[in-house]
Amino acid sequence: MALLLCLVGMTAALAHGCLHCHSKFSEKFSFYRHHVNLKSWWVGDIPVSGALLTDWSDDTMKELHLAIPAEITREKLDQVATAVYQRMDQLYQGKMYFPGYFPNELRNIFREQVHLIQNAIIESRLDCQRHCGIFQYETISCNNCTDSHVACFGYNCESSEQWESAVQGLLNYINNWHKQDVSMRLRSSSFSWPGTHRATPAFLVSPAFRCLEPPHLANLTLDDAAECLKQH
Fold first, then answer.
1. What's a Pfam family this protein contains (predicted)?
2. Is-above-0.70 flag for pTM?
C-alpha cells in the first residue's frame, strides 16, 4: 500500500459537524425540529428527539474519532447530505409512531451519517496513493465550514524519472513552506497578533520523518529528501 503524508495541521475551532456546512442543512433541520412534536404518540419522545436534532452537529464531531483533520470534498459532502436527507424525509413522511421508535430511528440515521462522513474523508485521503508526488484537492473544513485544501504525497511512481520528479516536487513544497513560515514568524515578532504562526505540516513532526523536520529544512537537498523517504 502506498504511504500517505498529510501536509496539513489541525487548528482549534468551533465544531460544526460537516453536514452543518451543507447549503440545505439549516432549512432541512429547521423543518425537522419544528415538526418533531407530530411524530410520536408518547410525549417523552419529543424532548429526546428535539435534543438529538439540536445537538446533531456537535455530536457528529465528537463521534468522528479521526486521526486526520475533518476535511471533506464538496462532492462527497453532497453525497452524504443527500443520503441523510433522504432517510430523514422518509422518516417524517410517516404518521405518528409508537413510543420510542422515532428517537431510535434518529439515532440510527445519526450513526449512519457519522459512518458516511468518516468513509468520505478517509477515501479522499487514500485516493492519494493513485498519484505520484505532491497532490492537492479542495475541501471544506468541518470545524468551521471554511474552504480548505489537503496536500499529500503519493508514492505510486512507476519509473525512476517519476520518482525523481516527485521528490523534487516534495522538496520544493517543503522549501516554500519553510520560507513562508519564516516570513510569518518575522511578521509575528513585529505584531503580537494571536494565531499568526502557521501550524507545522503534520509530516514534519512525525517521528518517522525526523530527517524532514524544521531544523533540517534550511540545507535540505534533493538527495537528502530522497534518502529520507527511502528509509521509511
1. IZUMO
2. yes
